[in-house]
Amino acid sequence: MTAFLATQRYIQSLPKYITLCEHNYIRLLKLLPSTQNDSKVRAIKLGNSEFNIKIDSIEKYTQDISITQKSGILANFTPLYLTVRLYHDAKVAEIIHHDYHQRIKPSYGYPNPKMHQKDEKYQLNAFLYDWLVACVERGQATLNWDVNNGLV
Question: What is the pLDDT of residues 24-81, one digit of tens each?
Fold first, then answer.
């Protein structure tokens, strides 16, 4: 039996990926904890699940946050854990870690030992987009609606 290795590499559409990350940035700004108070955690209830968005670090041009699932965890499924980096100068947000794993590569060869998809990074950020849309539209949390700074 011979192994078949795909010779064509996956090439990501950069405009499509950047647009997705821009949408994630806008929605994350609405869900981030307020910087005026001492709390760096915001709780969000979505259906029967509860999530926390926590600010891990704030630098001059970047901000790292973690999104963790606190309740509503199904048996045999690991709870959601994402680390997202917001780039304030470029106004984009992307997942840099998920489920306590190492950094996500832009693309993976296929097949690979851990069975990552070729476009794993894009798929994770598309999931983040869908999750943020659900949180903003149907979640229960106080949102940051700052009309004066153009977040709406």
Answer: 999 999 888 776 666 788 889 888 889 999 999 999 999 999 999 998 877 777 788 8
What count of Cα atoms within 13 Å lies in the side-chain half-sphere of residue 67?
23
Q: Residues 15, 145, 40, 62: is their CA dihedral positive or negative?
A: positive
pLDDT in tens, 141-150: 766 555 555 5
Residue 114's pLDDT is 66
Q: Which residue has better confidence, 31 or 104?
A: 31
- What number of CA atoms fall less than 13 Å from residue 107's CA on the CB side? 12
Please, which contacts does 21-26 make with residues 24 or more away whose CB atoms are closer than 8 Å? 21/92, 21/93, 21/94, 21/125, 22/91, 22/92, 23/129, 24/84, 24/92, 24/93, 24/94, 24/125, 24/128, 24/129, 24/132, 25/86, 25/87, 25/91, 25/92, 25/93, 26/91, 26/151
Q: What are the structural domain ranges in the chain?
A: 14-138
Please state, in angstroms and rounded to a whole number, the distance separating the CA atoms of residues 144 and 102.
31
Q: For residue 28, what is the enclosing H or E element?
A: helix 14-31
Tokens of 79: 């709870």
